[in-house]
Structures are given as structure tokens and as C-alpha cells.
Amino acid sequence: MHLSDLPALRHVRQSLEWHRRLVSAVLVGVAVVAALVSLSPRTGRTREVWAAARDLPGGEPLRAADLLADRLPVAVVPAGALLAGVPVVGRLLAAPVRRGEPLTDVRLLGPSLLASLPHAGLVAIPVRVADGAAAAAVTRPGDVVDVLATGDLTGADTAAPPVVVAASVTVLSVPPHDAGAGDDAGLVVVAVTPEQAAAVATAAGVRRLSLVLRLP
Q: Which of 200, 191, 201, 59 is nearest to 124 (CA)?
């Protein structure tokens, strides 16, 4: 190689070294930006919905302490979710709800329930029956039933004869049974007089309840 070529080679090497450093710096910068993006909080759209503050049984009215406002990404908000701010206190749960579960419209008995009462002066009450699966299979809204009190809640007194505590009452709703919540008893909402409601409530505290279908 001629000595006159050495400065040219040195220039080429310096140029290649400069470009190598430039590419390395760019790659490092891209890696830093990617890391910052992955660590930064996502700013997607969210929606605030009502959720259960604790495990809630079916057939009981909601209280303020039972609710919490949970903000969820819009993509995971379930269909029919009740938005925070919608009044739900006092509404009746149709089925058990797990802690943290968003409340949806199918979990609550509709406000039209009272409008379906067949006569003035009646009230709607939930009746938790021992043979819940069977009751849900054969009972439909509009059916006429007797509410029976059978053995006691402990199962010790099996000799006590069944007693009719509410005769010829109309079924208003049969909420879906939630086997996953570990609730073995069914729930049926019936229209009763205030006196029948008191009798059912008293019996439910000490005895198991059952339903008998009647002709309308």
C-alpha cells in the first residue's frame, strides 16, 4: 500500500466509528423510550360502576355499606353494569353476589316488580325455600302457591307437621339460582298481604319453607 493512502484509510475508519457510535446512541434512546412507555400508567378510557363491597346474599335489599364505586377499563365493563351514581340503595338482590363483583341489571329485581302486584294492599317479599332447585324448575311468575313451614332449620325436629303460613299467594319472580355462590336454597318473590308477610317472616326464622302449587 502506498503511504499516500494512509490518511484516506484513517478518514474512512473515523467515519465508520462515528456512524457506529451514532447508531448505538439511537438504539439506546429507543430502548429507554420503550422502557418508559411500558412503565407509565395506561390512560385508556374507564367507567365507574357499582360493585359489591362484600359477599352479599340474594333476596335482601341493598344498603349503602354494601356498595363501592369501582373504576374499570371500558373494555372489561360487563354488559348491563350499573353506573356509579345510579340509585340502587333499597333495590332487592335477585341472587347472591361476590365481593368485588360489578352489579348488573340482571342481579337486581326490576322496579316494575311492585307494578305487577295483582291487588292493592299487597306487598312483595322474597321467600327462601329449602327445595330451591325444584321450586325454580316448576314455579313461574303468575303461579299461585301455598307457602308451607316444615321442619326446623336444624333438621332435628322432623316430626313437626307442615303448616300453611301463606295460602293462595301469587309468584311475582323466580330469580336465577347461583350455585357458584354456595347458596343451596332457592329464592321466590311472592305477593302477600302484610299479615301473611309477617307470618312468613316469623316462620322463616325457625322453620324451613316450601311451596305447593295450587290451581289459580
A: 191
